[in-house]
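Late entry, written up from scratch paper. The run itself happened at the end of the previous shift, but nothing got recorded in the book at the time, so transcribing now.
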Amino acid sequence: MCGILGVISKKEIKNFRSEYFDPISRALDQMEYRGPDNKGMWLENGICLGHRRLSIIDLSPDSNQPFESTCERYVIVFNGELFNYQELRSDLIQLGHSFRTESDTEVILAAYSQYGQEFCQYFRGMFAIVIYDRKENQVIFARDRLGKKPLFLYESEEVIIFSSEIKFFHAFRNLPLEINEESLLNFLSLQYIPGPDTIYKNIRQISPANVFSYDLLAAKGETVTYWRIFDFVGKRKDIPGIEEIDSLIEKSIKYRLVANVDIGLLLSGGIDSSLLACYMQELAGKKVKAFNVSFSDQSIDESVFAQKVAASLDLELISLRLEDLSVENFSKSIYHADQPLGDSAIIPTCLISKSIGQHVKVVLSGEGADELFHGYDHYGYEKYFYLFGKIPFQLAGPIMELISSLGIHKFDRVKNKLRSVGSFKYDTGVSRWTSILSPELSRNYLKNPPEKYGDYEKKFNRFLDEFGKNSGRIESSLMLDLLTWLPDDLLVKTDRMMMAYSVEARTPFLDHELVEEVIKSSSYFKNPLFQSKNYLRQLLKKKLPAEVSGLISNRPKQGFETPKQYWLSSGLKELSGFLFSEENLKKNPYLNSERINNLWQDAKNQKAGTNFRLIWNLFCFLEWYRQHESKFGFYK
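Output as recorded:
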């Protein structure tokens, strides 16, 4: 895991060193947290590649980047890990390639040399790759299948600039970084910005599973998608057995235990992380370090479950107690979130990363299990939603509101979501439950809402249609998070918060072979095994000692809950008072200060029905915008 940053000149630039090379060098210094083990730069003919290294595989300096191929044709910078690099290396040796290092970086270059732009199809891992081909005068940008590793691009008539994080574009003094108001509207609706768009108008993300090649001589680029999740939907004529899922998860974890450094585990005490603990205890060959976060609020604290799992498996459990939150911790979390991100779990994730970084460089994490095996409450809400069958979409919201008032389990937690359901212009599947408001309602909180909006609704609806070619509507809806919420919120949180303290997080449940097999079985999602992670519950009962297996496997989904309201009125009281002050709100060129001030007053008065998720989301944007105005510390 590393950080990459660079500039590709499309034409000769007289002041290249002062405009680009020197800013890259300064930015790499500020990016040290993504890779404290080495800083590397390579420059030739107006192309500058920069790299920060977190050494995990082949720790020798010979594997530092930027890395040049033995034939001197290719130069690469790469962020991530190739978990199958050893077997791929053996295959390439048989095809005539030779290697001077034991690194996965050199294997990537050899694979590109052998297979061309189809090279990513041979990879099992997480990656953001940039390769310069001297002979073809071409630059290749590639990203992993599910978007685990980030890659941002700025393109003008003069240059292409790429970076692992969007804030580092501020290192270039003359770069126009204008806020994209539709992205801001989407953020207010979703708490994240759906890619490939970003918070800035002229910066985009390379989409997951895409290879973008730019021909410097022809001055044009081409994008190829090398993997499509839709191609696997409904392809199986049977349902996977428990043994098959067991084998796929075990295989995935074996790959993710490949490293030349110690590997730990994030252990919440929930089903996903407890199951990972069982596999790690079997496969690691040494005592496993497990990390857990606890809260003083017992209603959201899961540490007692993590303690029971750790004791039963003889894990070394390292606990971090989260008490009152400081302004410094909050601001640092917003800084590392990079783009506006309203997921309050970034804060405990950032804090636990700080503790983990003192012990190991790598941890396994359970992201993806809920999306694959339907563990979230909102999947249940979606099933209720579709029970109404032929009832018009616009009427479903009021009917669900009535059900909520009658006390159906947990529906009282989604009343704010239900109020906006009827204002969606398109069916957006399960995202209607994870969203804060529809774009139509979010417009009320912007000073000058964009005339053009709703693209994310259309995009999510297109995804549903693609899934729906080989599955039912409810099954399609349950797959949607894999392409939306997961890459643009949950995986962003994991990457940015872990890398803030130089920790690599690996996600075994998102191995592409496991994902493919589950998606192939989408016709059977109504089978009890696919309800509320029953596959994983049964595996846990087989693997965890009996004295705790029932306790853990029968637990309902708790999630990474955080005491947002308490934070705003305690440790963050002074900052929230400043950010939501009339003076500060009126200075903001994008927000409707009067409406937000009214909302803030309702929150302070604890008015019933106040949308605290929206308040937290606005709070995060206001802090992000304050840092944006200061150019994230690059130029005072």
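Confidence is low (pLDDT under 50) at residues 408-413.
(Scratch paper discarded after transcription.)
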